[in-house]
Structures are given as structure tokens and as C-alpha cells.
Amino acid sequence: MSAPSLKQLDGVLVLHKPGGPTSADCLNQIKRRLGQKKIGHAGTLDPMATGVLVVLLGQGTKLAGYLVDGRKTYRGRLILGQTTDSYDTQGKVLAEAPWEHLDPEAVRAEVLGWKGTISQEVPPVSAAKHQGKPLYALHRAGQEVPVKVKDVTIFDSQLLSMELPSLDFRVTCSAGTYIRSLAHSLGMRLGCGAVLSELEREASHPFTLAQAHDLEKVLESKDLLHELVLPMTQALPHWPKLVLSHEQAALVQNGAWLPTSLFPDYPAQEGDRALMLSAERAPLALMEAGMRAGVLSWAILRGLWQA
């Protein structure tokens, strides 16, 4: 069945992803059933995971990489005493070990000790790539999966409850952090193994679950979809908005730099970013302040004007 003839929207849809489908499955359903042919996201979730999935529509796809501040908050549950090939309960069990001897305070200290910048082992069953192929494809084919390590930052970690062998936690971390790997490494340090059993992304900052719409609600919205989508002018709530004159807008569209002194109400510093709007308040460009010929000026990061 062909996709309905619905208008392509521009902006951000904060989706509450259900457990089960992949992030790509969710996007494909929106694309197929709601006619949103130009679609992307700002950070995937594992099939088991639920919570905030930031979906980009139309011109909104140009915001990828600029949209979120890189911090994500998760609430999860892990179970001690088991090790799997995927680091979660959906994988193949590789080993089991007793956990009853563990001191709850030692477990608590390990969870709170997540904070800081750490080197994290990427799960062998993941979408991370080696020589152009995702690790999960190598794993499924029975090929050797190389060990990949990446540096991530845990800004905050909390132990919410503990009834061994399970415990609930919350972490705020940098983009690209594998929560499954946090569970796995904790199990290794405790000597009994650990697997992730539940995971919900509570925030992909600055967007939270309070703003998120259930997938089924979205798929049933059809002509009301525009009411669920944040327009481009609201897609970057943490960026200042600067309105340009017609002459300034024309200069920007020709690639010119604009001295920050033209906007005295916003005293910019080098490295600051802003969303430039046309005189009609239409999105024009993402800009960053930098030095040019000794003058602090706004330069284009990404043009947003319609051709």
C-alpha cells in the first residue's frame, strides 16, 4: 500500500519509543503511514529500550549534530549473576555466577563510582562498525568481533533501589554511551557478571519524556501530525534567536559573515551559537561566533532557508 499523500513537515517530533521495534522501525512506520519521506533521528535506542527518541522531519534533518547538547539521561535495571554476549537479557547466556556473597554497600559504591570519564568497551552485539560492517552482523555470521573501546563521560549516577540480585539506577551521560556496557563492566568488577534487563531514556537533552508522544498516537494522528511536531523555530530551545533585516538575510544567504556588534542586545563570545531568523521569523541559518580579521563575527554552520 502506498504512503498517504500528506504534507512533508519540517521540525522535531519527540517520540516515546516503545520496547521491541528498532529506532529505524519506528521511523519507517512514520515514513510509510504518514508520508514523511525526509526523516531522521538524533540518537538511536536499542530495540529493548523505551523512551525519548528525537525524530527529525524535513528541514529538521539539517539540525542533526546541533540539536541536543550531547547529554542523555537513562533509568535502568540490571541483574547480577549472569553474563551474556549482548550485555543484556536478550543475549545468549555465556556464564552464571553466585552473587549472594556480595556486600550491598560495595555494590552501591560501584554504581556511584561510574561518574567521570571512562574507557568503555563497545558491546559485541551493537551497530558500531568495523571496516564498514556493524559488529552485530559479524557476530551473527560467526566471525571474530574486534574489541572496540571508546571514551565516554558519566556526569551523574544514582542508585534508586536495590533488592539483590537486581538494582535500579539512573545515569546522565555523554552521547554514545552504552548503558549495557556499564552493566557489564560492573558485573566484571564484582566478579559475578551483570546484564541490563530494562532501560528507558528519560531525556535527550533538552527534550524529555514529558514532551514525548506515543508511537501509536503519532501513527493515528494523520492530518493532526503538525500539532505534535515542534516547528523549526522551537527546535533549538537552548539557542538564542536573532532576527535579521532583509539586507542582513541576503548577506547570510550569500555566505557573508556578520559582525556580532550588529546585535548589541546579545553580547556574543567566541564559540557561541545562535539561530538566525529572517525578518518574517522564518529559520535562516545556524551560526557560530568566531574571529575574522580581528572582528568577532557570526559565520554560517548550516543554512536552513528553503531553495
TrEMBL record:
Residue ranges occupied by any Pseudouridine synthase II N-terminal domain in the UniProt entry: 31-179
Enzyme Commission code(s) on record: 5.4.99.25
Record bears the keyword Isomerase: yes
Active-site positions on this chain: 46 (nucleophile)
Keyword Signal: no
Residue ranges annotated for the tRNA pseudouridylate synthase B C-terminal domain, each copy included: 180-236
Key words, A-Z: Isomerase, tRNA processing
Lineage: superkingdom: Bacteria
Any single GO BP term: tRNA pseudouridine synthesis
Record-level Gene Ontology MF annotations: RNA binding; tRNA pseudouridine(55) synthase activity
InterPro entries hit by this protein: PsdUridine_synth_cat_dom_sf, PsdUridine_synth_N, tRNA_psdUridine_synth_TruB, TruB_C
Record field: catalytic activity: uridine(55) in tRNA = pseudouridine(55) in tRNA
HAMAP family membership: TruB_bact
Function text: Responsible for synthesis of pseudouridine from uracil-55 in the psi GC loop of transfer RNAs.
Similarity comment: Belongs to the pseudouridine synthase TruB family. Type 1 subfamily.
PANTHER family: PSEUDOURIDYLATE SYNTHASE TRUB1, TRNA-PSEUDOURIDINE SYNTHASE
Name of the protein described by the UniProt record: tRNA pseudouridine synthase B
